[in-house]
Amino acid sequence: MVELLSGGEMIARALEDEGVEYIFGYPGGAVLHIYDALFKDCKVPHVLVRHEQAATHAADGYTRATGKPGVVLVTSGPGATNAITGIATAYMDSTPMVVLSGQVQSHLIGEDAFQETDMIGISRPIVKHSFMVRRTEDLPGIIKKAFHIAVSGRPGPVVIDIPKDLTRPDEKFEYEYPQSVKMRSYSPAQRGHTGQVKKAARLLLAAKRPIIYSGGGVILGESSELLTRLARHLNFPVTNTLMGLGAFPGTDPQFLGMLGMHGFYEANMAMHYSDCILAVGARFDDRVTNTVEKFCPGAKIIHIDVDPASISKIVMADIPIVGPVQSVLTELIAQVEAIQEKDADLPDQSALGKWWQQIDEWRGAHGLFHGRRYGDSDAIMPQQVIESLFRATNGDAYVTSDVGQHQMFAAQYYPFDKPRRWINSGGLGTMGFGLPAAMGAKLAFPDANVACVTGEGSIQMNIQELSTCTQYNLGVKIINLRNNYLGMVKQWQDMQYEGRYAMSTYEDSLPDFVKLAESYGHVGMQVTAMADLDAAMDEAFAMKDKLVFLDIFIDPKEHVYPMHVAPNGSMKDMWLSKNERT
Amino acid sequence: MRRIISMLMENEPGALSRVVGLFSQRGYNIETLNVAPTNDPTLSRLTLTTAGDDLRIEQLTKQLNKLVDVVKLADLTEGAHVERDLMLIKVRATGAAREEIKRTTDVFRGQIVDVGPSIYTIQLTGPSDKLDAFVAAMPDGDVLEVVRSGVAGISRGEKVLSL
């Protein structure tokens, strides 16, 4: 017998049927019927945040840690607009997410009703797709489609806007959750073109100075093992984008570190002088390429991506391959092995040996800074904080970050050996992402160490979530790299604006973060001397179930290096310190 | 280079705004736009003209294809095609100009569809440049109003844009 359910009940049931683990949201007038249905009968727990932006970031953090789509429920008007930054963040980093937003009653739409906003219109440029529900009986089909679109192909956020009257408890309709989806206008690539894959295999094996440049797509496509297998099989150097960190083990000697604006010297040099770049699930972002016209002049480029629009968008690919990274890499490995069976001398080992020798020279000459840069200062260097975090967590934590210098230090100094451990807003660069993302990761993995590396600027953009952490007992560790400046802004002002710190300081207005944490029932600790750093870090992580806010006073003079020279620089043009450049 | 891009899209509310929004979002220009339902009531045919080099148009068509509401897409300028634009033009037609306008209309195979004591409204169809030429042929200052449908196009021969 087919069940009769109200619209609100259908939503609750569909989320169960979809296997959703958490709903992140915030109630309000237009979604009260839905919340009542969740309250009465829904097995999916709801996490109440303190601001809708945090709901989207928490869902995003949950998704990046698990690979499962995040679910957000917000009310109309301000609830919907508050969610926008988080939706844009998810869109830029291709996070699968389904956002259910309430809407005013159907007959009020367009009348500037209370808490009305055109959510479909506002979210249009930052969603993969969106649905405006017009009939209650369409809800199950739309929800099924939304999840399908969100997770398949190049993933992304999908918005479902639901007028309040369609969720009324007194109007019931037949409910059946569809088993599958068929859409004539949506069919992402299922596999790469075999001829192209063969060509790619031949080009790779003929390379003398190859490099694998892999991005977030490898993690999204669950292909870290395949990528690692290919790289190790060929003994090719690997660099990862900011979004791709962890796709290849960060502590592996074949790993050259992150590339790009704040990439490792050896990674950027190897890219520049390479003769063959295998780009996998990466999109030649402007934070990677520096000046596009000068990008890697001698390199042939193989580009694998599930999104055809990412290929040859910025840099022309010599061998474009559109397809899911997983199936393409599987086929590529098979093709490489097939060629090698006929010609065991490939790739050219002596050329590859020389290439590695060159890379090791680069590595030796200008590897990352370790230790103290300012001999006479006993201030804590931010890099040392990240190294201490790595040590205290055995390199196995989920690390979220906000945006700025601390983000780059974390990306540089915490080598991630596994995918989905590094969670940051790479594309949109959203301050305020770190703490709610950490909440999502902690909910997904309650026993794991989850650290939010942040700064006093970023953390204050969603500081209210300390209250959510209290409610759900989320023992994340907040590593606040405190320099009393908006550090990255200040760095640019130092480098390009002769040290005029326009609006990059807060003067004496910062709160006492220790007391603030304590007021929410958490633990706050202040660290001001290098000698105390390791012990404080250990103490914080020893308090398994407690949220600990580590307010760590770092050297405010420190800049992030390397840094690409701009404008008009190439991959190899970098500042290596305040007064050295390539 | 001028391109005519034609697509079938779901005849759903909001589909048009996704297509148009993509142009402004990604910095492309739409020169003309024409959209109407087809013989299949679930589909709309949208035809637009834009300009750009091969790379830019390739990127644009890829982005358009990514829109879930876009079912199928073709760049008609890649092959032989027929294109038509429809124009309604109201001109001041008095004195000696009145007869001259009628003659020009005949030369262009247009039709006068409305007549007033001092105006003609002329209907003209053809490729866009023919319509441009007609407007240019009207006496200076006498063109009162121009309405154009935007280009509609279809490929020549057996080639069909359908499901």
Q: What does it look like?
A:
The complex is a heterodimer of chains A (582) and B (163). With 582 residues, chain A is α/β, with parallel strands linked by helices. Chain A has 21 helices and 22 strands. In chain A, the strands form five sheets. In chain A, strands 3-2-4-5-7-6 form a six-stranded parallel β-sheet, with helices on both faces. Chain A has a six-stranded parallel β-sheet with strand order 11-10-9-12-13-14, with helices on both faces. In chain A, strand 2 (23-25), helix 2 and strand 3 (46-48) form a beta-alpha-beta unit. In chain A, helix 1 packs across helix 2 (32-40), helix 10 (265-273) packs antiparallel against helix 13 and helix 14 (382-392) runs parallel beside helix 21. The mean pLDDT of chain A is 96. Chain B has 163 residues and is α+β, with helices and mostly antiparallel strands. Chain B is built from four helices and nine strands, in the order βαββαββαββαββ. Chain B has helices at residues 15-25, 54-66, 95-107, 128-137, and strands at 2-10, 32-37, 43-51, 70-75, 81-92, 111-115, 119-126, 143-148, 152-155. In chain B, the strands form two sheets. In chain B, strands 5, 6, 7, 8 and 9 form a five-stranded antiparallel β-sheet that branches. In chain B, a hairpin with a 5-residue loop joins strand 2 (32-37) and strand 3 (43-51). The mean pLDDT of chain B is 95. Chains A and B meet through strand 6 of A and helix 1 and helix 2 of B.
Q: Oligomeric status of the shown chains?
A: heterodimer
How would you spell out the order of helices and strands of chain B?
EHEEHEEHEEHEE
State the shape of chain A: globular
| Helical percentage of chain A | 25-40%
Based on CA atoms alone, the radius of gyration of chain A comes out at 25 Å
What structural category arises from helix and sheet content of chain B?
A: alpha+beta
Using CB atoms under 8 Å apart, which protein chain pair has the greatest interface?
Answer: A-B, 19 and 20 residues
| N-to-C span of chain A | 73 Å
Distance linking N and C termini of chain B: 28 Å
